[in-house]
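INTERNAL AUDIT FORM
Audit reference: QA-55
Scope: verify that the stored structure record matches its stored sequence.
Auditor: D.O.
Record contents follow.
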Amino acid sequence: MGYVDHNLITDESVTYRGRLHWILFVKPFFLSLIIFAAVALLIYALDVNGVISTGHAALAWVVGFVLSAMPIYSAFFTWKSAEFSVTNKRVVLKIGFIQSRTAEMFLNKIESVGVDQNVVGRALGYGDIVIRGTGGSLEPFRRVSAPLEFRRQIQEQIGKSFGPPAGAIPTTN
């Protein structure tokens, strides 16, 4: 159970859950490769010059591996701790593990939901969601997976919570 499940209000239920996109791991992966390559080059240079012993080289490899994995671990914790949910009453967005950033907005306070996608984001299925609330509040959340579906789910819940528009002619089947 995550943040959203622990903070549901009376008669509220989650109707849709979103996630951060895997694109979040691309930069940390390349940074890890660079760190690992730098450590490997340093160990090789020290080994060639006879400065480092076999035991110290093994320890250096372990330390280098741990250091190079840190960006990926950090991205994993960010990915795992992020929650994007639409309920029948609110939109709840949370990012962060130790230091978290949350935005909770009642459906009746949402003026618009924007999706910003570049060409790569459109092709890979991620983008930024920008929720504009009454009073001019602006809540952007980056690299959300399937942002168009997330927006559709919000709009669907807003439509359900307010019912049919005034003056609408009921349809009969």
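Auditor finding: record pair retrieved intact. The mean pLDDT is 88.
Action required: none
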